[in-house]
User: Which sequence fits this backbone?
């Protein structure tokens, strides 16, 4: 049982570390929102593992509230980003190729 707890702790720790890294590095608000979702999912997984191993159903309302808050937060951020005007319009880095000149002379 201890080996399983260690494996769960290492995997959740790696997920949290990657989530925090994306939160710090992420250039856009969507990257940061995704990292918050990863952190919330890691917390939910850890609490769920605790509830399963200790057969403790008292934490289930906490899981429900946290998952609802995560869902509402994700939807709110998505609506916020969808309403923002485009700040950076993608421009091509190379000019378009010129159209080929029509062939002179007639066709046979």
Assistant:
């Amino acid at each position: 049982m201890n080996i399983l707890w260690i494996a769960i702790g290492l995997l959740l720790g790696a997920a949290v570390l990657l989530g925090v890294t994306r939160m710090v590095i992420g250039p856009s608000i969507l990257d940061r929102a995704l990292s918050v979702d990863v952190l919330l999912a890691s917390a939910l997984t850890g609490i769920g593992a605790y509830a399963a191993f200790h057969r403790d159903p008292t934490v289930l309302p906490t899981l429900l509230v946290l998952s609802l808050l995560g869902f509402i937060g994700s939807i709110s951020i998505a609506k916020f980003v969808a309403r923002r005007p485009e700040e950076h319009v993608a421009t091509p880095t190379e000019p378009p190729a010129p159209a080929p000149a029509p062939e002179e002379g007639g066709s046979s």
